[in-house]
């Protein structure tokens, strides 16, 4: 029994391009969770998106290497499944951030065997911390390198438009500090910064996560796809997108059929500690994201959603579903890249050294001990594999 059997979905294997592993577990537990998650959801491929790192926030300094470790472990276990790893980038947030430094990062992560880059700087709070535009010339050599080597980029840009409106933002979003007052760039300004990157690098293989938070404006989405031929969107909720699609279901359905090559599956599934038995997997509320996406694309009957009102699903044909569920992922990423084990072991050693010298610690002693141990496991594994 898998999620597909439980809900009667189409027998199309999934490639989920938007997975995170930020929960605090021993790294081998995370490998097990991903293994079970892939089985439960019929995922033949997943891409783990690593965390952005900086010299101040040290929640999980080894997160990118952890993604590389999970990829390598699972790919040696299962010849018929593939795991991919995208690396976040590193900022100092001071004058040590340079164009040469960002370019060096692009070269290093590509050389280490990552399959792509995750950029989170477009999240409003992070963009504010960054203190410079996303299309600042400091990033030009970095993006030039990504374009030259056809390296896929997944970028988070913006948030739902309500987050800029104190009267419309949800209580939860307000509480966790996502309200964007006048000290933040507007959503339109943020979008212009991304489009300016694409003007400079028109062949950059850029996927905007969460449908670019643009599901309220179908005409704008069509214009973007027509103007920027390499631009793609992922369907990672932002569940508000399904509420918006349901306001013009026929128009959006036609849009999905027309641009099926530009839209791909993503879910924001994490390394949740779930259940020991697969049969219990579907019972967790935390698993709602994959099913929200699948039901909306596949089902034909309207259904009530507790947050998003009446949803009117698309009932897409198998051809369109196959492109969205797997074809676009396979075309964009190709085969999973081999990991440079020596480089990965050395990178783990460097982070361990930073811990040893007191230059790094996590939010509390317990997390520090856990992540230190995880990096030792990762370093030993890559040393042995070399
Ligand atoms: Zn995400």
Number of helices: 15
Write the CATH homologous superfamily. Metal-dependent hydrolases
Order of helices and strands: HEHEEHEEHEHHEHHEHEHHEHEEHHH
Whole-number mean pLDDT? 94
Under CATH at level 1, the class stands as Alpha Beta
For the report, how would you describe the main beta sheet?
8 strands, parallel
Q: Can you tell me the CATH architecture?
A: Alpha-Beta Barrel
Helix content: 40-55%
The chain-level structural class is alpha/beta
Strand content: 5-15%
Q: Any idea how many domains? A: 1
Question: Nearest-angstrom radius of gyration?
Answer: 20 Å
Strand order of the biggest β-sheet: 1-2-4-6-7-8-9-10
Q: What sort of overall outline do the alpha carbons produce when their principal axes are compared?
A: globular
Low-confidence runs? none
Small-molecule components bound:
zinc ion
What is the number of strand segments? Answer: 12
Short structural summary:
The protein has a single domain, classed as Metal-dependent hydrolases (TIM Barrel), CATH 3.20.20.140. The protein contains 15 helices and 12 strands. The protein is an alpha/beta fold and 386 residues long.
